[in-house]
Structures are given as C-alpha cells and as structure tokens.
Amino acid sequence: MADATMDSASRLLHLDDLRIGQRFASSTEAVDERAITEFARQFDPQPFHLDPEAAKLSLFGGLAASGWHTAAITMRLNVRGGLPIAGGIVGLGGELSWPKPTRPGDVLRVESEVVEISPSRSRPDRGTVIVRSETRNQRDQVVQIATMKLLVPRRPPAE
Amino acid sequence: MADATMDSASRLLHLDDLRIGQRFASSTEAVDERAITEFARQFDPQPFHLDPEAAKLSLFGGLAASGWHTAAITMRLNVRGGLPIAGGIVGLGGELSWPKPTRPGDVLRVESEVVEISPSRSRPDRGTVIVRSETRNQRDQVVQIATMKLLVPRRPPAE
Predict the structure, then answer these.
(1) How many other C-beta atoms can be found within 10 angstroms of the C-beta atom of residue A22?
(2) pTM of the entire structure?
(3) What is the Cα Rg of chain B in Å?
(4) Cβ of B1 and A79 within 8 Å?
C-alpha cells in the first residue's frame, strides 16, 4: 500500500498545490440495511440503528445509520479518491454534525472544500489545512458536515 | 433491544436527572492489531492503518488506528454503560480531536462529563446536553476528546 501511494504521488496534492476554495468530489456509495445494522451491532448497538421495527417507534421514525457509520463511509469515500492529498488523509480533529440520518437505500457522496491553509512555522516540511466535507444523499440532502483539520506535507524542494 | 432498553429504563437518566459536572466512566476495551487493520480495510484503507511495516515509515512511526475507529470504539463503550442516558445516545454533532493515536495493544476507556444542559423551549419533552468524553489508554494518555451535543428526553410527567 505504501508503494501504491508513492507511485501515484505525482497526482496527489501537497500543501503548495492547495488553494482556499478548491473543491473536490468523491465517487458514490450505496448504503443498505445490512451495512447499517452490521456497523451498529459492532459499534453502536442501539435499537434505532439495529431493528427497523424498534426504529419506527424511536425519534428517528425508522432505521437510521449511526452517525459514526456516516463518518466512516465519508472517510472511505475521501480516501478512495475524494480528497487526493499527498501522504494520505491525516486528521487532527475538527467539527462534525449530522443534520439528517443516513437511511437504508441512501447513495452517499462527499463534496469537500479547502477553507484554510496554514504552513507550519516550526516544521518547514508540512502544514495544516482545514477541509469542509459535506456528505449528501441521492436527494442532495446533507447527512453530515465535517470540518476537519488535516496534516499536509509540503512539496519536497528537490521535486 | 428495544425491550432491553425499556426494562432498564428506571436506572437510565433523563434530562432532569443530569447536572453540570456529573461524571461517568465506561468499562475498558482492548484494541489489537487485527481490529485496527480490519476497521481500516473497511473504512480508512491507508498504509499507516493497514500495514505495520509501511506505518513505521509514516509520520505515525508505527501502526495507528484510524481516528474514526477510536471514535467508534468510544461510542461502543458509551452505549455499553459508559453514558446511561434514557432513550439512548443520540448525537447531533460536536467537536472531535485525536491528541495521540490508538495503538495495537491499547486498552481504552472513556470518562465523560456533563458540561451543558439546555431544556428545549419549543419541545417540553426533551432538551440537549453537551457531554465531553475523554478516551484514554492504559497509560492514561488521551487518545480522543469528543465534545458532543446529545438529544436527551425529559422525565415523563406521569412518572
């Protein structure tokens, strides 16, 4: 995997290649009931994420994916081409909100935008970038907004 | 699962039972290399989360769990008794940071504290609560801080 990353590094973006307002779009991913309940069984075993009948009686009004599942799918979409950062996507933290839940049958995609670029003062080989990633379903409804600070390498001087 | 939640509802906390500064502790969970690489393969397929050798050469200096894996384990620990909220743990969003990565062999636990309580003005049956959850490893190092806003039901008047 390290080699694969290095092989395609020429089209991956360093800090120097990014500009504020730059936008990226991921591919899409369908989320079915089985994926929702499987993630929930592992990491968020609550009735409204596990059981369609119990979920009807909950405040979700039907089966809803764990917000952490939506976050994990968003990461997968960004890693698989949605956010082509050299050195990978290394998050330090950020803000997260889930305006609507992900539902069975949803087809998700991520649209990301660079909102801040800060070269490091102490480390000339890197900097941080704040990226706002909106995860949307097939009806263009936003299911997650993640505004995350990423560690991004600068282009090596030799290149 | 719905019945299990209802059966134990008498010891679960409603908005009216919470106070600022109230603290909760979860059980512990060991995280091994297989769990780290399995989560990464599914949701965050990057060399430093997948391959111990590639990870040595990365800025992590060794295999590190995806931050989203740490977040998902934190949720599981909170759902399994770490945060006994009536009606379940329903997050609207919040802030997340990963001061250190989770490593193979780490034993994680979560300490949570209520930092804000806001009864809804429009919906007398609910409110929101901000909870700060620190996820710590066996050396007491903080691997994640999550400050999340949760939807919490009020105690029904009939009770």
Answers:
(1) 15
(2) 0.92
(3) 18
(4) no
Count each helix (H run) and each strand (E run) in chain A, helices first: 5, 5
ipTM over cut 0.90: yes
* Chain A residues lying within 8 Å of B91, measured CB to CB: 67, 98
What residues of chain A, 59 to 78, have a C-beta less than 8 Å from chain B? 59, 66-68, 71-73, 75-76
Contact between B72 and A97 using a beta-carbon 8 Å cutoff:
no
Q: Which helix (H) or strand (E) holds B24?
A: strand B23-30
- pLDDT of res. A27: 97
B67, A78 contact by CB (below 8 A): no
pLDDT per position as a tens digit, A81-96: 999 999 899 999 999 9
Cβ–Cβ under 8 Å, residues B52 and A83: no
Structure tokens at B89: 């743990």
Query: Looking at the partner chain, which of B88, B89, B98 has a beta carbon nearest the beta carbon of A91?
Result: B98
Q: What angle do CA B88, B91, B94 make, to 5 degrees?
A: 150
Could you give the dihedral angle defined by the CA atoms of residues A76, A81, A82 and A88, in that order, rounded to the nearest 10 degrees? 70
Give A19→chain B minimum CA distance, Å.
24
Please report the DSSP string for A20-73 in residue order: TT-EEEEEEEE--HHHHHHHHHHH---HHHH-HHHHHTSTTSS----HHHHHHH
CA distance A86 to chain B (A): 12
The shortest CB-CB distance from A45 to any of B47, B79, B95 is to B79
